[in-house]
Amino acid sequence: MEDESQPRANTLDCGGGEKKNRTVGCCWRTSRFHWLLPDGLVAAVMSPELLLLLLAALTSESTADSTGLNFIAAFPENIAFYHPDAPENKIRITALFPDTEVNIKVYSNTETRTLASGETWEYAPEATMELMGSGISTKILQITSNNLITVHAVYLKKDSVQTTLLRPDDKLDKEYLVPPIPVIEGTSHPADMVTRTVAERSPFKLIVINTEKDNKITVKHAEPETVSLLPHQIAQLSLTTEDVSRVVKADEPVAVLFGHSCAIRENCTCGQLYTWLPPDKQEQFKFYIPPFLAKDAKSETRVLLSVGGSNHVIPYNPNSPVVETAGTAVLYRPGAFFNLIPEKDFGSCSIINSIAETENFAVILVHKDFTDGVRVGELSLESPQWQQLVGTDFVSTDVALASGKNVIWHTGTSKMAVYYVGIRKGALFGNPAPIISKIPDFRGCIVSPEVLKIGEVADGWRESLKYCSDNNLDLMSFPGAQLQSHIYNKIMQVKDDSLSHVWFGMRRSSQTGEWYWLNGDSVNETNWGEGEPGTEDDGQCAIMSLESSTRFAWSDENCCRKAHPICYRDPVIL
Predict the structure, then answer these.
(1) Domain boundaries 11-62+448-573, corresponding CATH code
(2) Cβ(41)–Cβ(55) under 8 Å?
């Protein structure tokens, strides 16, 4: 039997009197096949149109809310616009794929940079981009990319620092619930001391950033307020301290920030306090609160809830660290807001870029039975101090981070919540870490999922090779024992009882008689059945049994035997 690179007869008998050129292959009129998708979703695809719809749905499902192609950014007033220290704001853009071209547009000026996979561009805007006072502004950054990116903003002036994770434009919405204003002595309380003339006693604000269409925005509360914005304009709206429910409604998608330019922290100091609000999903969510977020401030920490037509402020209780709500849940502690991560948004991989001159931590929340699978980079956690969240199956820990980029991921089937926390001169701040993927994988941080397909066309080994190639896949090579086990589990999700054997990407060299993988990896860990492989006369192509009693045993086989191919595309790993 020749190697697959050697010529064979020009034609194939496809049955029913039909003959085709061997390079085309036989019987392609059977177009139904099985696709294995993340989370075990199996689809029987009957047409190219349905296939395209299915893949679009897969892309949407596996893409996290923090990754996208287009973002808008603004820089809230920090302490006071007239403060003698200039702001040192930064935008940190991290690419998930190679050859990522990023553009940052400020007014009519555009700056462009091409990033490698995992590379971060730290862009420092002009100090004049900081917002001033109130009213309408055009001080906006537009960030666009040809590949998925994450965008993290750092607002810094003197010792006042806040960080926030930007949401891509296509994940923005038209309705947001505004949290209740926290009671902060010297800032929001007593209410009759609030004034626009003193920075730390000025009103809390909403900052509404418009996207690319003319828009009308209404803040619905005791006295509704409406403002019209042109594309890429910003409105700053002051809030009263009265305890009323507030809802932002817009005709077109917007981003909404909530906070204060100089809220009292401790020792008569004040600093910026802002967070980007999540859209109102009108769904019931469960939020778990890691103890580290209330570090050294348990008695002052509150959970701010806005649910439909009502507000609630709940004191943090370490003995009851779970909140369920159908609205917005924001944790407040002196000097910091944290948007709590709902359980449905737990991910399998996050990325954190440390900030200079700051103690940097990742706060990780995961199911108690899956702590061993947590990784930072290539390493397991070193002597982690896991804390049980009372009354739940979850535990949390804090991990000191190295400078630069830190990839936090899970090797198994569990998902987790990850927060970035920074401590600078005793002041704690942070935000939810950007979720890169929701697809756990033992190989690393997945930015594009694997694809496994068992074709329903049974043919020879060479024809199977072409079948996979025509579908932009490879006849599968799986040289390692861990990958073999992973693939066997996946196959069990898609196979039916009629499927007994499949071709895969291994064969014997006609020149040396040695077995080799198509992807070029060494043949070390194998799963040959008893008495296999035989001699060169027994067969030169490897076939795998799917019969339950064989445990996926391999055997050598005549390459002309008809069997189904197992086709594959590797995941893209950050």
Answers:
(1) 3.10.100.10
(2) no
